[in-house]
Design brief:
With 178 residues, the protein is mainly beta. It has three helices and twelve strands. The protein has a six-stranded mixed β-sheet with strand order 7-4-9-2-1-12, with helices on one face. The protein has a three-stranded antiparallel β-sheet with strand order 3-10-11, with no helix packed on it. A three-stranded antiparallel β-sheet has the order 6-5-8, with no helix packed on it. It is globular. The mean pLDDT is 89.
Length: 178
Amino acid sequence: MAFANITTIKQLTKNLNMGAGHGGYNELFSAIDLHKSEWEKFCTWKDSRYTRNCISDCDEYELLLMCWGKKQESPIHSFTFQEGWIKVLEGELSIQRYEMDRDKLCCHKTEMITLSAGESTYLNDNMGFHQVLNSNNDSTVSLHLNIEKVTEWEVFRACRQETIKVKPILDSKTVDCD
């Protein structure tokens, strides 16, 4: 059974609080059709880096709105056994996947996908390390759902040929699960 279009943040968090349901989170994320007026109030921007803005989190998930300036990108990273979905609300994002050679401490690009506004994708750590890049010539806004809250990332720093553990930074936090 398909989800009806999800047009408000309130509808989205209500659906998330009920769980994945029969169609799972892929179907739920495909049903998201938020107008800009629904999500722009959660946006924060920085010239130096993308921002991570928490819309909702609880034991079962966290929902983030990420704001990407021109050419901003995440580090090459992975989460600890996480599943996640990304939906582009405005602009365009590219997701570069990497295969990590832990013996040689290097990463090899494996594939890149590009998402335009309205498109979404699924990620998990079995897919390897990844990097998210704003491939748009303007700003981009994306919605990120992580099943379980991300409390630590593993970041690959090519310049030093090392991986480090990093605690995620939130630029804003708005709502907890109700």
